[in-house]
């Protein structure tokens, strides 16, 4: 028996302890394998995107003439949204045998690279050209697959097509609804080089370039000129190059964007991006029901008024039964309010309306000029105050009641400006309620909220949701913006210190995680999510 026991232990001993030992060995081998992979300069791919780290980054730069690199964080929602489009763009560029490739770096793991390239938000995209590591170019295109592809194509090849004879240039002009052609007597000169820079950025517009003297004559030109050719409105618009100042890229880009738009735009799903990216400071809107012939006829006077304000005011027709139905709540309107006119100042979303709608071209011109001259007050939206607005811990403010509550000299008022649809507002709702419950018996502190999609204020502009403002007691109509963490304890500390907090590093630095662009509040700095307007 003793012999059997010894034999059993001798046989079972390695097995009993061997499994753990084998697992440890396997784990160690896998760990060593991963370390070897990281230390190697081998470049692996995921969905046609190069997976880069500090040990293979230099090799990637040396092997690829144009390399667009996304610096991302695994937890970043915007990075996750971008991933499919980024992979699709990588596949398209690879399939067309482009010299341009796409790569990605997990900047939370590759901290040395993140520091080297100054990564402070996610995702950040940078273009590396010809192996140059010291001066990458910031990505300025759209964050969709076609936007990425076009942006890279413009940098991989000539940004403008060389047009050498009359037949070629005529065919080029007729090939699109809109083309831009730069006429330069020296294609190596500063003006031409500035033109190529603009062409590289405006990837949704087709650019050509010409230097032949006969082409200058055909199109009535005597000096360097950029021409915009359209199949609508003015057929040819010339932008002469100032012989002393040269060609300013920012100004040319602005002029091309403005004049690329139709004199009167219709607000649709296809045109909305053009309308908002044109950066025209005012929008004049005609709301109408396109199924009504009588309302459709109002467009004639609207168009007649438009030509005198090009570049300053963009004229837009909004069909209240079509795509425009979605924007009616922003104006506090319903389809039954059509036809009607509104002017919007884009920098602060202030809205202006006539005392009584008059759709003649002269009346529209007069109204617009009076707004531009500061003679018309903005029309401010306000909901009706709920009957129980001041009986709950969180006081419900509207435009009509805001002044009397927020600027009550006997109260310290902490206000949350929110949008009902904003997920970040919804996420902090419980904390705000708990804060109000904590201070409901304090006579000198009011916790309040206002739906900024239904209420507007004359002297306070809300750019993103949620926005938090503190209005301290006393004279002077003071206002302090809250920019810290959105939790009950930090809110309380802020209130107990009279609307201030001790100096602390930004939340993103404390966590070691830069904020996602578009998620940082407006104005930026809170280090937590918000929704842009």
Automatic annotation (TrEMBL):
Regions of biased composition (Acidic residues) lie at: 20-30
Any GO BP: protein folding
Its top-level enzyme class, in one word, is isomerase
List keywords of the entry alphabetically: Chaperone, Disulfide bond, Endoplasmic reticulum, Isomerase, Redox-active center, Repeat, Signal
Keyword rRNA-binding tagged: no
Does Cell inner membrane show up as a keyword for this record?
Answer: no
**GO CC annotation: what is one?**
endoplasmic reticulum lumen
Can you provide one Gene Ontology molecular function annotated for this UniProt record? protein disulfide isomerase activity
**Domain of life per record:** Eukaryota
The chain's disulfide connectivity reads: 76-79, 422-425
The places in or outside the cell where this protein is found are:
Endoplasmic reticulum lumen
Annotated signal peptide: 1-17
Segments forming domain Thioredoxin: 7-157, 371-500
Spell out the NCBIfam families in the cross-references: ER_PDI_fam
Which PANTHER family did the record assign?
PROTEIN DISULFIDE ISOMERASE, PROTEIN DISULFIDE-ISOMERASE A2
| Protein family according to the UniProt entry | Belongs to the protein disulfide isomerase family.
**Protein name in UniProt:** protein disulfide-isomerase
Origin organism is Sylvia atricapilla
| Upper taxonomic lineage | Eukaryota, Metazoa, Chordata, Craniata, Vertebrata
